Structure formats: structure tokens, C-alpha cells
């Protein structure tokens, strides 16, 4: 296994793991929030809409991360870095997601973009968890659930 294929295999594995885990956490929050936090209290309308928004954002980012993982897997199936990155650009151009510009972006640039997506996903999940905690505290009128 060359260094190129090892890097793309590692990126694929990390992106898939983060895509699945982030999506699962967002779905879990959406599933447990209504029965546990209720739909009453002072924060209900705005907080519920914000919770929905901040759970849908990580779901969309999870789909994006899984798509990127598939692209890195495609790139890793080629022996040379330039050929693999050109294959990614070819797929994106055929799908109409990116115009053909001739020179493929380097691997470091692509991985930096994936890291930005991961941070956006994590931040939106943290905000969703904080909103869920606010709704849960509001539903119990501040009483301890212990």
C-alpha cells in the first residue's frame, strides 16, 4: 500500500465514521426530544424550530461527508495521486457540481475542506444538544430529574 492510498483510505474511514455518528446523534436528538422535553413552556416555539434546524444541518453535513468519503474511496482506487484527484474532479464535473478547470486541487486542500465540514457538524450538534437541554429544563420547570 502506497502512502497515497493509505492517506485516502484513512480519510475515507474517518469521513464515514464521522458522517454516520453525526447523523445518528442528530436523529437521536430529534427522536428523544418530543417525548422527554414536551411541547410546552416559555421556550417552546422558537426553541423547537431552532432544535429542528440545528438537527437538520448536521444531517445534511453527514450526507456531504459520506459523499466525500465515497469520492476519496474512488481516488484511493488509483495508484497515482494526480490520477485519483482527476477522477474526483471528473465525477464532480459530470454531476454538474464543479466546472472543469484543468488542474485538480491538491489533496491537502480537499482534506482541509472536509475538516471544515466536520467542525461545522460538531458545532451544530453542540448547539442542538444545548437547545435540547434548555427544552428539557423548561419541561421540568427546573426540577432535578434525578
Summarize the structure in words.
The protein is mainly alpha-helical and 146 residues long. It is built from 4 helices and no strands. Helix 1 packs parallel to helix 4 and helix 2 crosses helix 3. The chain is elongated. The protein starts with a helix and ends in a 7-residue tail after the last helix. The model has no long low-confidence stretch (mean pLDDT 88).
Task: Summarize this entry quickly.
The protein is built from 4 helices and no strands. It is mostly helical and 146 residues long.
Determine the fraction of residues in helical runs and give it as a percent range: over 70%
Count of individual helical segments: 4
Sheet having the most strands: none
Average pLDDT figure: 88
The count of strands amounts to: 0
Gyration radius over CA: 20 Å
Order of helices and strands: HHHH
Based on secondary structure, the structural category is mainly alpha
The low-confidence runs, each spanning 5 or more residues with pLDDT under 50, are: none
> What general outline do the C-alpha atoms trace?
elongated
Indicate the proportion of strand residues.
under 5%
What gap, in angstroms, lies between the N and C termini?
Answer: 53 Å
Amino acid at each position: 500500500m502506497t502512502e497515497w492510498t493509505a492517506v485516502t483510505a484513512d480519510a475515507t474511514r474517518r469521513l464515514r465514521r464521522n458522517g454516520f455518528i453525526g447523523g445518528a446523534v442528530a436523529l437521536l436528538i430529534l427522536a428523544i426530544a418530543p417525548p422527554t422535553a414536551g411541547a410546552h413552556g416559555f421556550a417552546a416555539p422558537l426553541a423547537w424550530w431552532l432544535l429542528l434546524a440545528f438537527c437538520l444541518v448536521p444531517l445534511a453535513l453527514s450526507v456531504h461527508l459520506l459523499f466525500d468519503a465515497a469520492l476519496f474511496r474512488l481516488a484511493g482506487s488509483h495508484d497515482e495521486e494526480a490520477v485519483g484527484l482527476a477522477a474526483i474532479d471528473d465525477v464532480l464535473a459530470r454531476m454538474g457540481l464543479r466546472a472543469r478547470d484543468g488542474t485538480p486541487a491538491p489533496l491537502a486542500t480537499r482534506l482541509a475542506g472536509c475538516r471544515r465540514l466536520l467542525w461545522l457538524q460538531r458545532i451544530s450538534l453542540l448547539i442542538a444538544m444545548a437547545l435540547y437541554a434548555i427544552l428539557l429544563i423548561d419541561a421540568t420547570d427546573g426540577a432535578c430529574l434525578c
